[in-house]
Amino acid sequence: MATVPTYKLFCIGNPLLDIQVRDGEALLEKYGLKANDAVLAEERHMPMYDELVQNYPVTYVAGGGSQNAARAAAYVLLPDSVVYVGCVGDDEFADRLRAANKREGLHDRYLVKTGEKTGACAVILTGHHRSLVPTLRAAEKFEKSHLSSPEVAPLVDAAGYIYVDGYFLTHGTESVLEIGKKAAAASKMFALNLAAPFIAQSFIAQLQSVLPYCDIIIGNETEAEAYASATGLPEPKNLVLTARAIALLPKANPKQPRIVVITRGPEPTVLVSSVDSDDVKVYKVTPIPDSLIVDTNGAGDAFAGGFLGALIAGKNLDDCVEVGHKMGAMCVQMVGPQFKWPKVQIL
Length: 347
Description:
The chain is an alpha/beta fold. It has helices spanning about 25-30, 45-55, 65-75, 90-105, 155-160, 175-185, 195-200, 205-210, 220-230, 240-245, 300-310, 315-330, and strands at about 10, 15-20, 35-40, 60-65, 80-85, 85-90, 105-110, 110-115, 120-125, 130-135, 160-165, 190-195, 215-220, 260-265, 265-275, 280-285.
C-alpha cells in the first residue's frame, strides 16, 4: 500500500483564478462597486468578466483567499508542509492554479467537477486600492464527502493545523464544522480568516456557528467593524473591544487559548489573547514607500499565511506577526498575491 504523505498545515477554501485589471474606475461606477471592498458576484456583475478580457489588459494570477494564504505558508516553511483542498472545473483556469501552486511549493488535492468552470475573481485596481468580485462557479460545488475520501481524510487526520477563510462559509459551513469539531477533539490548531465585511454582514449565522472551534481568528479593520456591527457590539470602530469580545467567545477546546489578530494595512496590527484579554499587543508596521507598492491584492492573505507558517515553525506570537508583516510587504510589491523568486529567507 502506498504511503499517504502528511502535511503540517491543511487548508480548505474556494480556488479562484484572479482576473486583474488596472485603472478600473469606470468599472467600479458601472457595476456599483467600491474600492477596497469584496462582494460576491450577482447576476448584474456577470457581463463584467467578459468585459474585462475584451476591453482591458488582463493579468491572470492564482487567487482565492485560503489558497493565497496556503501558498504564503508554504513559502516560509520547509518543503511538503502545506496541502490545500477545494473544488475546480476541468479547464485551463484549474491548470493555471496547479502551476502556481507547484511553483510556490503548495500541494493541492482538488475535487474536480467535469464540465464545470473553475471559479474566478475580478480584481479591479484603482491606484493602490482593489475591489474583489468573485464568481465561485465550481468552488461552491465542493462536497463534504471529499473530506472523507481516501485521498483527503488521512491528510486531515495528520495535520496539526487547519486553516479556512470566511468566503468558504457562503456554501461550505457543514464541511468547516466537520473539520472544526475534529480539530477541537484532537487539540489541533484551527484558524479562520474573516475574509471580507460581507461575510459578517450576510453570513453571520454561519460565522457564529464555527467560531467556537476557532483558536486563531485573523481579519482586517473593516471586517472587524462589520462583525461588531452585525453582532451589536458597542463602538464598532473600537478594534480592541471587538478583538477582545471575539477572543472571549465560548470555545469548544478550552485547552488552547484563542488568538485574535486584526491588521490595519500600514497602521499598527492589534493582537488579543483569551489568556489575558486586557493585555493588548500593538505591533508597528514598517510602511512601504508608495513608489514600491504595485498591488495590494492578497496582502491580508499573505499576512495570514506568514503568521501561520511562523507559528508552525515554533516561533512566538511576536515573531509570527513580524513574519506576517514581511509576507504582506513582499506581496504588495508584486502583481497580485505572489511572492519573490528566488525564494527569500523569511524565518
